[in-house]
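Hi both,

Apologies for the delay on this - the queue was longer than expected. I finally got the flavin-adenine dinucleotide-bound model through. Below you'll find the protein sequence and the ligand SMILES exactly as submitted, and right after that the structure tokens for the full complex including the ligand.
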Amino acid sequence: MIAQKFEYTAPKSLDEALHLLASGAKPLAGGMSLIPMMKLRLASPEHLVDLRTIQDLNFIREAGGQLHIGATASHYEIESSALLRQKCPLLTETAAAIGDVQVRNMGTIGGSVAHADPAADYPAALQALEAKFVLKGAKSERTVSAADFFVDAFATALEPGEILSEVIVPIDDARTGTSYQKMVQPASGFAIVGLAARVRVNAGKVSFVRIGVTGLSNHAYRASGAEKTFEGKTSSPANIQAAAALVAQGVDANSDLHASADFRRHLAVVHAARALKTALSRIA
Amino acid sequence: MATTTTKVETFVGKRIRRREDPRLITGTATYVEDIQMPGMHYAVILRSPHAAARIRSIDTKKAESAPGVVCVLLGKETKGVGAVPCGVAMPDLRVPQHTILATDRVYFVGHPVAVVVARDGYLARDAADLIEVDYEVLPAVADPEKALAKGAPAVHPQWPDNIAFTYHQDGGNVDKAFAEADVVVKQRIVSQRLVPMAMETRGVVAEWRNADRQLNLYTSTQIPHLVRTIVAGMLGLEENRTRVIAPEVGGGFGSKLNVYAEEALMGYVSMKIQKPVKWIESRRENFTCTIHGRGHVDFYEIAAKRDGTILGIKLKLIQDVGAYHQLLTPLIPQLSVLMMPGIYNTQNIRADIVGVFTNCVPTDAYRGAGRPEATHGIERMVDMLAAELKMDPAEIRFKNFVAKDKFPYATATGLTYDSGDYAAPLKKALDLVGYAKLRQEQADLRKQGKYMGIGISTYGEICAIGPSPATPAGGWESATVKIEPSGKVTILTGACPHGQGEETTFAQIAADELGVALDDIVVLRGDTAVVQYGIGTFGSRATAVGGTALYYALQDLKAKIKKFGAMLLESEDVTLAGGQVVDNKTGKSKPFQEIAGATYRALKLPPNTEPGLMATRFWEPPNFTFPFGAHIVVTDIDGETGQIRIRRYVAVDDCGNILNPLIVDGQIHGGVAQGLGQALWEQAVYDDNGQLVTGELTDYALPRAHLMPWIESHHTCTPSPVNPLGVKGVGEAGTIGCSPAVVNSVVDALSPLGVRHIDMPLTPEKIWKLLATKNRDVGSRGATK
Ligand SMILES: Cc1cc2nc3c(=O)[nH]c(=O)nc-3n(C[C@H](O)[C@H](O)[C@H](O)COP(=O)(O)OP(=O)(O)OC[C@H]3O[C@@H](n4cnc5c(N)ncnc54)[C@H](O)[C@@H]3O)c2cc1C
């Protein structure tokens, strides 16, 4: 398990990093996805630019009524952030469900989102949160919604030379309940399916619902059919079930050794119902 | 001079912390990978990406001219090196020529094709990518049942039926037993292929010293002396100029109870380049090139009377051999046959083994080696029989246990069980788990549509392997004890502990026998230049056989110490106790350390006595030992997802006398972890082309710490009469007892749906399908008479 030869730079500033990336270098964050691929020689970048040495990319803060998370915030930093626990518990819950302690200590939210593994956990939560991603290049900066960002398995809206510099999520009020429910693939720790739910109830009716799904298809998505069905209804078990039943609709489900397409679909429905139920129970 | 005997602390039977752990947990132990030598070179092995192919040509030019590369070796060059040996002799065994590098054909994915040697490991790895091999890909077969079918691709062209060996054993009168039976239950049971997965992969450092014609070989092995004898033979070297060192060995589980091509290959390379060379196996290679375990398809039939009395058992066993025989490959299923009656009193058995070549890495010993497969079989069959007869699974076991007054008990398979009280651990486990109450709870939960299961497994196993006539390479073990002039004690054991803790338990034995402090004792192992010949550590033998050799060596020394003590005390009547030789009449005493000094100073010698204090014993065990126990597993099944949660795990194991309860608990815990691995998660899956689909830890689900249930570990104690320590062995018990208890529990949970058998691993999807369709017998097609 020996990688091919590569250059390594630990830049001092974001500008320096972007400059190197513009000339073809590849960003390295926690290395939890990239390094194994290099060791298996499935990836052989010639030059790695380490983002973790850049102070400007490591933060979790509240500004302008939203939460801003720097790309190199580790899964552990997110899981243990008091600010996020209070204002975006869906993200801390999701972070805590990732892999194992070592992976959470090293892996970063930027790396996970940029890597876009179809079984990664964050993308489900970020879809449900309608997160925005700030993408920076040497001469550009733009903001892309989660809905537009995840394009395919391991494919995103990132252009060559661009990095994801921060993740922006909204602050929900106390009438919002959230939950992330995951079926773990026992070997890797990744999600066989992962369902994130975000719900609000007003005057006895579900007034707002967002459901993010990961693991089921080539990329994480919002189950808008299920959302539409649930909105405006009461949160009765029958209505939860009816909504959950739609999360896998029209999806070309993944199939592998750990779960066939049929089983994955079934699990998505089960976990959607559980996520909705738990989210509803968490509304203050 | 002291005149009273000081009461010295004793150690045997106490929870003493492992003396080997500080270096392990501080990261200061020396594994093969840690060895550095001046001028060291590094080898990388190019392996076949195909399961079956003819090698048309190999172009090494680019690799040879790559930076840092010293040489690239191919099979045609190493043809003179002896074949990788199979240590088992059987009348109709077909042994394919197993060269250390492939020559004109490859037989499994991972088959070594070339070795690249460079001055650093990175350059060697890069150069390996530059070798161009032109393969003509051939059809492969990876499934042993498919390999037996007519028209299957021949793994070895000279044997188109793919049969590697057959073996038949008959005991009693099976035909009569089945004719007289009220009920016969049949089932196909799979024990899937597993990857042993030692935390430390294999690795070899070879250092040829030309001036001395001496090869030093550092290798991660369980059997350094056997590796020396065999590798010296393969390379045409002298055994006394071949030194094998097993430094710290990071787990083996049987996978390092072997002699591998790379051990001879690195020796060859070092001789060729006249430099030390290092090869470290990658995890990927460990998956594809180190032996696998299990790999059975078993067809069982069990015959019984209506009252549950078992009359006879038949077994047709298909053993997936893989492409070659490794050291013990054909022996492993024979151990299954020996163990097939379990701990039940039935004298009628028939077994037929067919070993089948497949285009896969060979199978061989993996923790339990044949006994987990056998125990899984009999314990599943007994449960199915109980279900068929509507008997309680505990009751049917009590009814059929070999009774406690029947020992020594001769089995239908030719073994003699040394001692046992099989009802005791089951009774204890039933009490501990609260069996009657649990059955009540289960009935209540069933009314609510919930699935909860209670699974019992009562196992027996074969340990202390074993009497020499029953083993391929000698079944004795050796020990030397040296008492230094200062009274410090050095033990040299022929066993090769690599995680089992004998540096602690052997010191406990010696400390108590001699009456010295634990800290005064050092245990050395794993170096053929230091330790007299030995057999090694496997088959739960090191303490029962090696510990006994140690015990007898200590008795020799005690006698000599007493002689010297008597001489110094000018007494005829002395005892050795508490580290002192005491004159029984006067009460005067001499401390052990002073006597040790006197034996070397040798100013005066007792009659017919030589100076010095050193003794060596080779102990040949008269029999195996037969530990046993009962494991009970309570499971709850998530009816929506098929996920299994283990609510309780009660293990009552009887391994005879316990030298160190802490170490015994550790062995049980580790064993259970690997048993759970087989029951719930692990499987080496080859696709139809012979590619290992589960060839990475992202797909091969190894048990992890956070997946472990709480193990309630308890014991009964039935000492073994086979050795003076009364110990039986405990290294494999957990693995053997575990998997049938888990499967029995889950089948019990799903029995209201008509489920009677599920093959391992019990993945959520299999369970879900059963729940969803009430479809029977996932992965198998059994039938009841
Ligand atoms: C044993 C194990 C278990 C795991 N289990 C889980 C799990 O349960 N759930 C889960 O979701 N994940 C899991 N992971 C993956 C883990 O979360 C990774 O940390 C994550 O996928 C990648 O993040 P990273 O910071 O390590 O990125 P890296 O591995 O450093 O990079 C990944 C890719 O993203 C690119 N990249 C990194 N940062 C940026 C950026 N800011 N902008 C643009 N491109 C960037 C890199 O160039 C590379 O292509 C597991 C990993 C391992 C090794």
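Main takeaway for now: Chain B touches chain A through 33 residues (CB under 8 Å).

I'll put the files on the shared drive as well.

H.
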